[in-house]
Hints:
Elements: H1 22-27, H2 32-98, E1 100-102, E2 109-111, H3 113-139, H4 144-173, H5 177-264, H6 279-306, H7 316-332, E3 336-344, H8 347-354, H9 356-373, E4 379-384, E5 387-395, H10 399-418, E6 421-423, E7 426-428, E8 432-439, H11 446-462, E9 467-470, H12 473-490, E10 498-507, E11 512-523, E12 527-529, H13 531-541, H14 544-562, E13 572-576, H15 579-583, H16 587-598, E14 605-610, H17 611-616, H18 618-630, E15 634-640, H19 647-652, E16 657-660, H20 662-666, H21 672-688, E17 691-694, H22 700-708, E18 713-714, E19 723-724, H23 725-734
Parallel strand pairs: 8-9, 11-13, 13-14, 14-15, 15-16, 16-17, 17-18
Antiparallel strand pairs: 1-2, 3-5, 3-8, 4-5, 6-7, 10-11, 10-18, 10-19, 11-12
The chain binds ligand C2E and magnesium ion (MG) (2 copies).
Amino acid sequence: MSTPPLPLSSSWNGPLDARPDIGHALFSRFRIGTRLAAMMALAVLVTVVLATAGIQGLATANESLRAVHEDRMKPVRTLSQIAHLMLSNQHQLQMALAQTATQGAPSRIMLNPDLARSAAQAIEHNVIAIDRLWSLYTAGPRTPQELALSDRFASRRAHYLREAVMPALAALRSLDYQDTQRLAALVRQLYERASPDVQALIDMQFNQARAAYEAGVQRYEQTRRLAIGALLLSMAVLGFLGVMLIRSIVRPLRQVTEVFRHIADGRLDTPIHVQGKDEISTVLTELRSMQHRLAANEKAIHQLAYYDPLTDLPNRRLLRDRLQAALTASRQDDRHRAVLLLDLDNFKTINDTLGHEIGDQHLLEVAQRLRMAVHAPHSIARIGGDEFVVLMDLLSPTETEALAQAEALASQLLAAVSRPCPLAGQIYHGSASIGICLFKNHNSSIKELLKRADAAMYQAKNAGRNGHCLFNPSMQVQLETRTALETALRGAVEAGQLQLHYQAQVSATGRPVGAEVLLRWNHPVHGPVAPAEFIPIAEASGLILPIGAWVLEQACAQLATWSTQAATRHLELAVNVSARQFRHPGFVDQVCRSLQQSGANPGKLVLELTESLVLDDIADTVDKMQTLRQHGVRFALDDFGTGYSSLAQLKRLPLEHLKIDRSFVEDIVSDASDAAIVQTIIDMARNLGLNVIAEGVETPAQRQALLELQCLVFQGYLFSHPLPIARFAQWLEQHASPFVPATATPAPWATPSGEFT
Length: 757
Ligand code: C2E
Ligand code: MG
Ligand code: MG
């Protein structure tokens, strides 16, 4: 059994990007605004902390470098000054020795007093400065190695002062050139002995300063590296958090986009996972409920489109899809397949007598039974009213076997339908007729298959119902004839092939009281076609609408003509109205228009309706009949006795005449039960205040029997066949006086005045 194209289902069934996402799980607890604000605050905080720490670290490192420069270079400078001052002493002595004068004894050379004084003052000043500088130096911290060295320098300097500088000062003051010269040499000698120590101290101090500087530089470097590292790390952390934040927004947004795409594609069964409580989660939750609603609606639409609302069985549309699929599949294999068209017998009776609700109940019961009898790969559908179709798939490739399979199922279906069924408090024994049509190798179309099954089903009905019938080629011929007739009928009105015949209706005295207008079709090839043959075709194809309109116009025109002559003014004209014509919304207007345009007297127009037409939609019928009745138009119930109208229903209708069906008149003489039925109809009509017309009166005996039952108006071959208007006019002329049957002796029941006894 093929399934209908279900727009709900999709090839893609996986959840929408349902991978667990820690970032999203973590972040989606908070609203997006909160997340962004938190991220910004974090970034600002980290930046401030890093900037502060970096600036401080770098400032500290810078400060320590400056301290190294200030503190550590101080002893170097002090020592260098000491060395310089010691050197300056030598220089002062040399200056003093540079200018001499001879005094006294020829060999005695004297120093220049001014220079010697100034040199002595400078040296004294230097000595004081060196002392001050040295004590400044020795006040600072010193390493043991430096201590030893400085101690040695101190003793050498003391020696230098004591042995050389002080005596030199004395010599300068005494202007003694020789002593000064000698002591200047000693000063230089002792200076040169002490100078390596001071130089070593300077080197040592310098090295220490350099080491401290390098340590400072290293610290600075470390701080810088640390700052950069911290910066990079915080950037990485912020970046990671940023990425997580973006992902926590982008991924669900992508999911939302994906959901929208799926919904737009009509894929409504995709699971939507919602995590968290943020805005996107809210959107997803809303989308999910929207998707559920859409899916439910789509399911409902699909159900409505493809399934019959009463029985839940597949409907005509779904059957067509399945038939198409079966036809396509039949190209590929040599299997037979079959269409079984099942129509309930007399279902209309249930509807008409028990009401539509009980009719629906019965249909439901039948549908249930049929559903139980049909199993995959076969399928069943309800295609209208009381019609069901079973599509049998994958039957045997051999025709006889396939037929046996189809007939076996048909028998099962008939058995299922005919099982007793409780209905409105009674047990109803229903039946059905089934038409079977086999097909294979894509040798037909859907329309053709259904038509064939339909033709076979009608054959089964004609064969007495409660049976099945296989479609055969002769039915095909009938079908084709029907199709050809339909085509021919289309052009019949314009081609003037349709004619109206008039059949007289006479009173008990034999006086013509009216006529029934009957349609005739003279086919150029086939000759006269019986109304029973072409009226159903016109009805089924809708051609009855233009044809019926034409008949009405002609009939009204005829009434108008009759109204101009005294001999025919009293005649009523009955027009047959088909169900489709009557149900058309414009029917009432059409009748009124025809009457107006022709100028006919509405009181002489009688519209003949059948029982089944009247009962089909009683409310609409009563409505239309009453409207027309108000315009003066009258109504006859045609073929009465063949339907199932109840007294209650008849009472609602504004009827004028009941026409007793020909079938009761036919055997009224020989069949007592027919006579009894006619009697009942006449009694009922009298109770309802209706006139009775007997149809199909062919013999004087029938007329006599009807007269005895108090039926006073007749129509039938005994009086006249339906005649074209010209001949009918002649007939009227001939029968202006009371009727005397041509074939019979004067009627013994006629009184001289012409009234029946
Ligand atoms: P109906 O309305 O019951 O018409 C009476 C039918 O009985 C006519 O058949 C008529 O020729 C036939 N008939 C009359 N007297 C006798 C008789 O003594 N013996 C026998 N055996 N038959 C008799 P017809 O003309 O073949 O029409 C058949 C049916 O076609 C009509 O039955 C009516 O239902 C339908 N029909 C005819 N003309 C029209 C029309 O213009 N519109 C519609 N909608 N239906 C029409
Ligand atoms: Mg009629
Ligand atoms: Mg009739």
